Amino acid sequence: MTDRICIASKGKQQFTISADDILSCCGFICGNGCEGGYPLQAWKFWVKHGVVTGGNYTSKAGCKPYPFPPCEHHNNATHYKPCPSDIVPTNTCEHSCQTGYSTSYTDDKHFGATAYAVSKKVTDIQKEIMTNGPVEVSYNVYEDFEHYTGGIYVHTAGALLGGHAVKMIGWGTENGTPYWICSNSWNSDWGENGFFRIIRGLDECGIESGVVAGEPKL
After folding, report:
1. How would residue 74 be classed by pLDDT, with cut points 50, 70 and 90?
2. Which pTM value belongs to this model?
3. For the Peptidase C1A papain C-terminal domain, which residue ranges apply (predicted)?
4. Where are the domains of the chain?
5. Mean pLDDT on 84-99
6. Pick the CATH number of 118-212 from 3.40.50.300, 3.40.250.10, 3.90.70.10, 3.30.200.20
7. Residue 10: left (phi > 0), alpha (psi -120 to 50), or beta?
């Protein structure tokens, strides 16, 4: 959402959409807060109700910045403490901005114009990224993905851990092997500086079957 607002406004609107506002206020329509949910419903929430601004935990920027400190999701813990074994409880929905923020909660809301699923056809996904910006993709995570350190990921071993959603930003080819480029949320010491590449065109781990996006209302 943040990227697409910036792209659609040709760089005139640069701020971060609040993840906490969606997590805490979308409720059971989106799923179960920090325990997971349905990506397309979050985009539909943006269209119907709007979402306020909010930067990451350390920035304290915007109306509702992210309330939870960073932690390590993997074994290569170099920056932060390991994440707790229990999922942090989702915040209560608050229709107010942080103390000291000059704009009201209502006035800070930004809305989407559309929310939609993208077909699993590779060329359709590529066209969507080229036309409107990054898309959100959901897929299955296996044990070997947690230990990914670089290269083009293909699931080879390990049990299914659950579902995950990330931002897909582009694609490429290395030594004849096509891949997608995605931005993960597991800090910069995981994968390729926080990013990963996954084989393209095979619906690996279902990554081409769960593509969603939307366009902003400017």
Report:
1. low
2. 0.92
3. 1-215
4. 118-212
5. 86
6. 3.90.70.10
7. left
